[in-house]
DNA sequence: CTCGACTTATTGTACGCGCAACGACCGGCG
DNA sequence: CGCCGGTCGTTGCGCGTACAATAAGTCGAG
């Protein structure tokens, strides 16, 4: 009676590819976040905000665009920006071409923090991730990501 | 004066491999979570709890072990288990060999939910992820994950 | 047998995030 | 010009999670 639809499961090969990514991602993100927090009192998302701002021309970005790039909801970014502003790592700036909008601008202090944190972060990415990959594998991974989600290449 | 240490940045190839994973992971997890939530009112973490329980012998697991497998803190799992128990998808069971411990046990209703959700979830994983990968690539990915984080292969 | 260091699960608390709603503002069309 | 659908950033609210502290229990050394 209750013989429900049994979905055909994944093959071991598929499982390895899929769950491996989940594990690796979660583990690495946790580790990188912890390192950043410990050495610079910065969360990974805060770091990414500074990163994108620092690499933008003028060191500023519209809130909406910034939210998109760091994969945060607009409300989430509003709150995060509040904290970063409180810590004087960014400032807000009105947008004169559109009175609704505002820019987030990285401060000098923010740039200093970014440079320091970047060293830690990049070191972590290399230790935990890149060091295990040959150049060919890196290329292949990049191709794979691009195929799965077109436009997955971006700034540092 | 303020000539700080400029960390040497990542190469484009490294960037593609690294940030690609971040984007793909976040996007896919969001999508899968939304599908599960919409079609079965189940979060991805809840699903994973049911999954691991359903695939364990006796349909039960110690809270501590379960927390480890779903990558949740023990307190996080306690709360999640509360919710799942409220929805009658799992039950708690005392452990007679160790009076401190308790088991989480999947219920019949939980198994039904799992079977249904599993169809949705596996379909999603195939559509969003596996369909873009050849068998060779799946193998290569699996190898890569295993090298980065030994022991990244597990149940469905 | 008893003590003490460790483990297990739970609880208090705080935080980060998303969703929905809001006010302010934009731009195009009648 | 005036309106109206859409957008931008912010806010109220609720949820899910981690960290620290706690109570109960385990196990081995003396």
Q: What is the compact description of this entry?
A:
With 156 residues, the first copy, chain A, is mostly helical. Chain A contains six helices and three strands; from the N terminus they run ααβααββαα.
Question: Can you offer a commentary on this structure?
Answer:
The structure is a homodimer of 156-residue chains. Chain A is mostly helical and 156 residues long. Chain A has a domain at 21-129: Arc Repressor Mutant, subunit A, CATH 1.10.10.10. Chain A has six helices and three strands. In chain A, strands 1-3-2 form a three-stranded antiparallel β-sheet. In chain A, helix 1 (12-40) runs antiparallel to helix 5 (108-128), helix 2 packs across helix 5 (108-128) and helix 3 (63-69) packs across helix 4. The mean pLDDT of chain A is 92. At the A-B interface, helix 1, helix 5 and helix 6 of A face helix 1, helix 5 and helix 6 of B. Chain A binds a DNA duplex (30 and 30 nucleotides) through residues 43, 45, 62-64, 72-80, 83, 95, 98-102.
Determine the fraction of residues in helical runs of chain A and give it as a percent range. Answer: 55-70%
- Under CATH at level 1, the class of the domain at 21-129 in chain A stands as Mainly Alpha
Oligomer: homodimer
The major pleated sheet of chain A works out as: 3 strands, antiparallel
Averaging pLDDT over every residue of chain A, what do you get? 92
Instruction: Evaluate the radius of gyration of chain A.
Output: 20 Å
Strand content of chain A: 5-15%
CATH architecture of the domain at 21-129 in chain A: Orthogonal Bundle
Cα(first) to Cα(last) distance of chain A is: 56 Å
* Major protein interface: A-B, 58 and 58 residues
Structural class of chain A: mainly alpha
Low-confidence stretches of chain A: none
Order of helices and strands of chain A: HHEHHEEHH
Q: Any idea of the CATH topology of the domain at 21-129 in chain A? A: Arc Repressor Mutant, subunit A
CATH fourth-tier homologous superfamily of the domain at 21-129 in chain A:
Winged helix-like DNA-binding domain superfamily/Winged helix DNA-binding domain
Strands of the widest sheet of chain A, in order across it, are 1-3-2
Please provide the count of β strands of chain A.
3
């Amino acid at each position: 009676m209750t013989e429900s639809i049994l979905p055909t499961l994944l093959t071991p090969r598929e499982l390895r590819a899929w769950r491996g990514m989940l594990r690796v991602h979660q583990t690495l993100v946790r580790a990188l976040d912890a390192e950043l927090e410990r050495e610079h009192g910065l969360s990974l998302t805060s770091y990414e905000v500074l990163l994108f701002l620092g690499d933008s021309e003028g060191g500023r970005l519209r809130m909406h665009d910034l939210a998109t790039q760091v994969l945060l909801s607009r409300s989430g970014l509003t709150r995060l920006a509040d904290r970063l502003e409180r810590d004087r790592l960014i400032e807000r700036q009105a947008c004169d071409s559109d009175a609704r909008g505002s820019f987030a601008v990285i401060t000098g202090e923010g740039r200093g923090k970014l440079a320091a944190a970047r060293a830690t972060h990049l070191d972590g990415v290399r230790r935990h991730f890149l060091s295990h990959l040959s150049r060919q594998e890196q290329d292949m991974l990049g191709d794979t990501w691009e195929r799965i989600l077109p436009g997955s290449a971006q700034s540092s």
